[in-house]
């Protein structure tokens, strides 16, 4: 294990490193720095760069130990809040857990839409299903727990909250997030036949736009 | 004109597999691909195919296929009886199947997964650069159903003369070399010792996502929640019940249970052929 005041590189088999950062902000900055270095050709070949909540996995690396030593010298600038593409997602705030979330936030249910849609989020990482992005950007006082009992079926397009994250379900799956709304056109989230299969990729910024449109 | 294969009997679980999808893990797309990559490559080489050409991967009960034109096939991986129109033919070496005849790949006599390679390959449309069926996220062709028709590609003009094919027999004991980490420090020293000294057994609940094991539970040094992090192929994840799970090719790209160690990728081909009940030992190295 290679430690550093800002990051810890943990071994993950013969060809991978799991780099751990102190918090989500520095994870986003480190991820952006990896992509920048890859784009300019100063990163050794890495097959997969997979961000997590507080980690970035570098998989398919010829010499993980040598890369770990190099990482220790990197200067990593904080990520500017306005850095990265912005995607807008329309939301009807009509989810079945709207009243529960309003109660947890201590507001009326008609205020949830305004509180949720008044900030800009960023995709921290993806997982669970292709096209499913974990969005950070809710302040700590608006974090909510998962539902005590997960639903066996959450419809595609459902907009949910869990812990520090917001997300939109790209397809119907079981799920335990608190559902506050519906994206009328969830087909935009994931299309493997499209040039860019995923609408939400790590680092992308997201704004939710309240709408009254039916699906 | 190229051939088409009609599925006469799909079997318990038959999927199209090649070397898998790379470069999309950050979008939540699993790698997929043949679990016994060694068997897939050998079967393809015997037909003059590129080693990573798409093949069929069966599970325990084989499958039956009927080509509309003559094709050459190799059935390898887990040993099984092979027949053409009811007549026994060779396993593990190229076999001609005449137009309209039925190739029957029987139930395995050992191991788990047989591979059916066809000269020219299974030519379904690639998705994100691979023809593999991904059972976790539903990418690629769905698992075979009776009646499904699969296109075959154009065979190589010159087929290599088969040499003695070094098929590996399914393991009677599965030895998995591991390197500790990334989360070995989440476990007690006693658990780390148990992990590399106890004998586990392959659980019947294993699948393409993971090789589940039965055996002594591994105790965690603390019970905090692990924030979701990226997972590699071969990661040995320890869920709350303490029994190690070895991530195979359809594994989720991120996970929230600690990974005690990672199995070297070349050893995973044997893991794919370890039947339920097979003893498993994790060794440092």
Automatic annotation (TrEMBL), chain A:
InterPro entries, alphabetized: CT_C_D, Cyclophilin-like_dom_sf, PxpB
Record organism: Streptomyces griseicoloratus
Hydrolase in keyword set: yes
Alphabetized SUPFAM superfamilies for the sequence: Cyclophilin-like (SSF50891)
Annotated GO MF terms: ATP binding; hydrolase activity
PANTHER family hit by this protein: 5-OXOPROLINASE SUBUNIT B
One Pfam family from the record: CT_C_D
Record keywords: ATP-binding, Hydrolase, Nucleotide-binding
Protein name per Swiss-Prot or TrEMBL: Allophanate hydrolase subunit 1
UniProtKB/TrEMBL annotation, chain B:
Molecular function via GO: ATP binding; hydrolase activity
Keyword GTP-binding (UniProt): no
Keywords linked to the UniProt accession: ATP-binding, Hydrolase, Nucleotide-binding
Every Carboxyltransferase domain range: 26-284
Keyword Hydrolase in annotation: yes
Domain of life from the UniProt record: Bacteria
Alphabetized Pfam families for the sequence: CT_A_B (PF02626)
SUPFAM superfamilies membership: Cyclophilin-like
Annotated PANTHER family: 5-OXOPROLINASE SUBUNIT C (PTHR43309)
Record-given protein name: Biotin-dependent carboxyltransferase family protein
Origin organism lineage: Bacteria, Bacillati, Actinomycetota, Actinomycetes, Kitasatosporales
